[in-house]
Amino acid sequence: MSEAKKMFIDGAWTTGTGTATRDLVDPATGFVNATVVEGNAADVDAAVAAARRAFDAGPWRDTPALARARILLKLADALEAHAEELGALETSNNGKPLRETAYDVSDAVNCFRYYAGLATKPTGQTYDVPDAMQAMTVREPIGVCGQIVPWNYPLLMAVWKLAPALAAGNTVVFKPAEATPLSVIRLFELLEPLGLPAGVANLVLGAGETVGSRLSEHPDVDKIAFTGGTDTGKAVMRAAAGNMKKISLELGGKSPCVVFEDADLETAVDWALFAIFANQGQVCSAGSRLLVQSSIHDRFVARLVERAQKIVVGPGNRDGVEMGPLITEEHMRRVLGYIEIGKQEGATLACGGLKLTSPELAGGWFVAPTVFTGCTPDMRIVREEIFGPVLVVLPFSDEAEAIQLANDSIFGLAGGVFTNDGARALRFIRKLRAGITWINAYHPTYNEAPWGGYKQSGIGRELGTYGFEAYTEVKQININLAPGPVGWFAN
Ligand code: NAD
Description:
Elements: E1 7-9, E2 12-14, E3 21-25, E4 32-37, H1 41-57, H2 65-81, H3 83-94, H4 98-119, E5 126-128, E6 133-141, E7 144-148, H5 154-167, E8 171-175, H6 182-191, E9 201-203, H7 208-217, E10 223-227, H8 230-240, E11 246-250, E12 256-259, H9 265-277, E13 289-293, H10 294-308, H11 329-345, E14 348-351, E15 370-373, H12 380-383, E16 390-396, H13 399-406, E17 411-412, E18 414-418, H14 422-431, E19 436-439, E20 454-455, E21 458-459, H15 464-469, E22 472-480
Parallel strand pairs: 7-8, 7-10, 8-9, 10-11, 12-13, 12-18, 13-16, 15-16, 18-19
Antiparallel strand pairs: 1-2, 3-4, 5-6, 6-22, 11-21, 14-15, 17-20
Helix pairs in contact: 1-7, 2-4, 3-4, 4-5, 7-8, 9-10
Nicotinamide-adenine-dinucleotide binds at residues 148-152, 175, 177-178, 207-209, 212-213, 216, 227-229, 232, 235-236, 250-253, 284, 385, 387, 413, 453, 458.
């Protein structure tokens, strides 16, 4: 086994203060295929101190925006030049099929290019005020940003955070999920020669309970940007209260995919499968609750189940594979646990519902695409985020019931509607309490448009201009156009 991969702190690769390491397991085989250094709270302190120095001394925030943009563009080029390698690395670490990691890498490249473009376009304003004053605003970087991401899109989630933060002139301490640090370690290797001042971008590795919580509570961190589960998000929010950090939270979901009787059935089935089974169902915005109008319910479900059973499940690096393994054995057991709960709750298992045990797949964490019908709104499998290839189907009679069911959730991340009635589609979407929505589609989103949730799916927005503003403070400046005493006090 090769040497454990290191952290990047204050411009140098380091094993940190401890001696612990973490073995990473290939989800398709169950075998260890890499080892990384396991960081601790003292390593977070060192990284934050470096980021603090780098921010306060100003080498990055005072670098002209165009020069900052040039570095981000060079990083985009480097990622693009290593796209195949990065895709294979991500597949070996996360398990997802190569066609998905290829998409993730290309989207990551576009994201750096998008924010490099935005770096030179700050959006201050001037105001005409009722006085001999010129009031204006400028945008400034927030300072030291702690960034924590999950394992489902390891590279992409990292880039959604690193690109706007660096473009806006902040310094960062980044923590990947403990299971999936490899692609972002490679990103930092590609970033290292590009001339970023020491301490501007730091990478710490390790567990959420130690490294993540220290970063969230650290008094010298000005902003925490977190993507992960809703319960963890609440813990991060509590920890961030200590020094009143700015926060961005991108959390869980249980999003509805809603099909009316007038939709084209084959098209809607196709999207409904994509909505839940893309990325093994490990997608925050997955269409994990399928609501189908009663008049077409049985026909729709029959076709959906027929196609779900044909999805090609296998190791992500094999040609033709459409769905890979789940991320870890622990997560697979959690998903299988929910399938047992669904059966006990009285839902009907229409397909799947088990770990795949063919000789090729037995060693990995493969779960068959699973569909439950006969579900009711009170069931745990309908209310809780399973974060795996498990779809629950509920019938509805009319538009009013569809919207009531769609909004019956503590989450509000995403949702899609399928209908050929344009007015109804827009009526429905306007009533849906969710941040990311589709009409006659599900999943495609873009770096240019804001991403984030209503209700307990999060606070704030990433991506687009919103995602850039989330890494800036707004400063009001008032310039006296008639300099002289104020004359408030007589003597
Ligand atoms: P998780 O909350 O367990 O972990 C996410 C990250 O937080 C990891 O890096 C982990 O190490 C860290 N962490 C854990 N405990 C922490 C603590 N006490 N303090 C600080 N950091 C801590 O989530 P997960 O299982 O890795 O990911 C799945 C979840 O992420 C799902 O709920 C999914 O919906 C959500 N997610 C949301 C979005 C979005 O954009 N809204 C995107 C992807 C995933």
